Amino acid sequence: MLDLDPVRIVEAVLFSSSQPVKVSDIELQAQMDGTVVRKAIKQLQKEYDERGSAIEVAKTGTGYSLVVREAYRPFGRQFSPQEVPDDVLRTAAMVAYHQPVLQSDLARTLGGRVYEDVRELSKLGLVTARKKGQTLQLSTTKRFSEYFGIEGSSKTAIKKWMEKKAQGEQ
Which residues of the chain have pLDDT under 70? Predict the structure, then answer.
């Protein structure tokens, strides 16, 4: 490989990826040592922080990604396509908060629209559905945590994150 800056290589990888990237994947694909990759990530985080960028390097689950800082997200959202419509987000929030939850229980609470919402959430890889009697038992996936920038994918971590958001905390 040419004498390229490892920090810029990591930046290019994170910028190009639509989901968080593991250190081991960067190591393998960019043919760089894991220590070099981790140092590059730390340097990149420092650079974005020092210049007060609207972008930050975020650790999400087991990977890293470039994301818009919380304070600037309302501005970015206006120009980015919305993957999950607001009404589907309501169903996603209920699944996340009450997981594992039966689809039939959600339908009693939110109405029949839940069935279409669950299909959409499953298609996006945010919710997993397992047959449980005559209905489905719903839980969030690792991708759910990655998508919403939640540190950890346990139901406890997700619930704590949701409670903080509901209280207006960053």
Answer: 1-2, 169-170
